[in-house]
Amino acid sequence: MSRSIAIAWLALLLSAGGVQAGEPVGHPAPPLELRIWLNSPPLDMSALKGKVVLLRWWTDGCPLCAATAPALRKLAAQYGNRGFTVIGVYHPKPPGDWNVARVRHAAAKLGFHFPVAIDGDWSALKRWWLTDDRDYTSVSFLVDKRGVIRYVQPGGEWHEGGGAGHEACRRDYREIDAMIAKLVSE
Predict the structure, then answer these.
(1) Is the pLDDT of residue 134 over 50?
(2) Is 103:118 a contact under the CB 8 Å cutoff?
(3) Which one of 28, 95, 112, 155 has the largest count of C-beta atoms within 10 Å of its C-beta?
(4) What residue segments make up the domains of the chain, in order of their start?
(5) 40 in the Ramachandran plot: left (φ > 0), alpha (ψ -120 to 50) or beta?
(6) 3-185: what fold?
(7) pLDDT confidence of 117, banded at 50, 70, 90?
(8) How many CA atoms lie within 13 A of 173 on its CB side?
(9) Which ranges in the chain belong to alpha helices (H)?
(10) CA distances (Å), 126 to each of 32, 85, 93, 154, 159, in order?
(11) Which of 75, 86, 87 is nearest to 34 (CA)?
(12) CB under 8 Å to 45, separation ≥6 — which residues?
């Protein structure tokens, strides 16, 4: 790809809303280094190379996380047999206020049957996202088969539905869906 085409493509992505200047797009995904997992043995990004991975940090009691849950379940079902994995990363608010039973209950309530990691002290969230002042901690990352971050949805909710006022949610869902389709085909 020529430099001018790459710059134009980056400008398009930056204007699309899901990716903002200064985000880690194009950089290798940091390690997760999380020890407690539900629905799977412990995973880390190095072991997930060869798969497209969508990571979503979430917490219980968050209406934005709950609104995004159906989209996560749908994408997991739609692309799961094509080398795609969703990982929910639970981060309590405030950090440190959690227990496995609480997380298990919250994940079941949201229908999260995919791998769920517990980031109880926000250590992974700090490595991945909280390097700058952020509006949201419930961020989503899309990582390609080589382990490179290809898309960041900077938090809040994203989904297919919703009425007036949810145009950005639907736009972000369409962008994420299209990016997954592209990445699993590469």
Answers:
(1) yes
(2) yes
(3) 112
(4) 3-185
(5) beta
(6) Glutaredoxin (3.40.30)
(7) very high
(8) 20
(9) 3-15, 63-79, 100-110, 123-128, 167-185
(10) 10, 22, 14, 14, 25
(11) 87
(12) 29, 30, 31, 32, 53, 143, 147
